[in-house]
Amino acid sequence: MDQSALLNGLLLYLCFIPVLTFHEFAHAWMASKCGDDTAKNLGRVSLNPAVHIDTIGTIVLPLLAVTLAAAGSGLAGFIIGWGKPVPVNISNLHNPRRDDTLVALAGPAMNILLAAVIMGALKIGILTGSHILVEMCNNLILVSLFLCFFNLLPIPPLDGSHVLKNAVNMPWETYMRLAQYGFIFIIIAIQIPQVRALIAWATFLTYQFLASLYHL
Question: Given 16, 20, 23, 24, which residue is catalytic?
Fold first, then answer.
C-alpha cells in the first residue's frame, strides 16, 4: 500500500467533513427560509458535523475508497460518498417550484462562498510563509469546489437534478422513479472521462477566478 497516497487521501477526507457540513447546513437553512421547517425541527440548521453525517455515506464508503485508492485498486473509482439527506417537504414551501430550486442551489452556492473565504486564509498563509496553512486551505478549496460541481450534475438525487426537474416542470412522480436508479446513473457518469474532465475544468476555472480576486 502506498503510504503517501493513504496519508493524502485521509487529509482530503478530513477536508470533506467540514465542507459537507456547510453544504448540508445551507440546504437546511434555505429550506427554512422558504417556509419548510422540517430540517430545522430535526436540528439540521446546524454547523455541527454530527447531524449531517451518514454512517455509510460519510464514513464507511469514503474511507474504503481512500484505502482502495492507496492500494492501487480501480474499485475506488466506483465508490461515492454522501451526507445525510436534508428532508424537504415540498408542500410547505412558499413557491414549490422556485423554492425547491433555491434549496437545491444553496448547497453548491455555499461551497463557492466557503472556497472564496478560505482563499483569503490561503493568501494569509502565503504572506506569512505558512506552508501548512497554504496546503490545508488549498485542499479545502479544491474539495469544496469539487463537491459543488459534482452536485450540480443533473442526476437524481444530486442538486442539479432538482434544478433540471423544475426547469422542465417534470412531474414529481417521474422524478422519484428516476431517483430510484440515481446512484447507478451517478456511478456510470463518473466513469465517463468527459464528465470527470468537465468537473475538473469547472473546479480549476473557479479556483483561478477566486485566486484572481485576491491577486494570487
Answer: 24
